[in-house]
Amino acid sequence: MSDGVEENEGQRRSGGSARPEERGVPEARAGGGPTAATGAEGEPKALAKTGAGAEQDDGGAGPDAAAGDTAPGAEPVPDEADAGTPDADGPATEGSGVRYEKLPGPPPPLLDKVRAAPPAPVGTATLVAAAATGLLSALLLGEGLAVNALIMALPLAAAAWFAARRAGRRPRPASLGWGAGGLALLAVPVWSDAEWPSLLALFAAVGLGALALHGCRTWSGVLLAPFGLLTSARRALGWGWRGVRARASGGDKDLGSLLRSVLVAVVLLVVFGGLFAAADRAFADLLGSLVPDIGASGVPWRAVLAVLAAAAALAVAHTAAAPTRWDGLGPGPGRARGRVEWALPLVLLDLLFAAFVAVQAAVLLRGEDAVRASNGMTYAEYAREGFWQLLFATVLTLAVICVAVRVAPRSGPRDKTLVRAVLGTLCLLTLIVVASAVRRMDLYMDEYGLTRLRLTVVTMELWLGAVVLLIIAAGVLGARLLPRAVVASGAVAVLAFGLASPDELIAESNVAAHHEGRTLDLAYLSGLSADAVPALDRLDEPQRSCALRSVAVEDTPWYATSVSQARAREILTARPVQDHPCRDLLTDDVYPSVR
Question: Which pLDDT score is estimated for 330?
Answer without folding.
Answer: 67
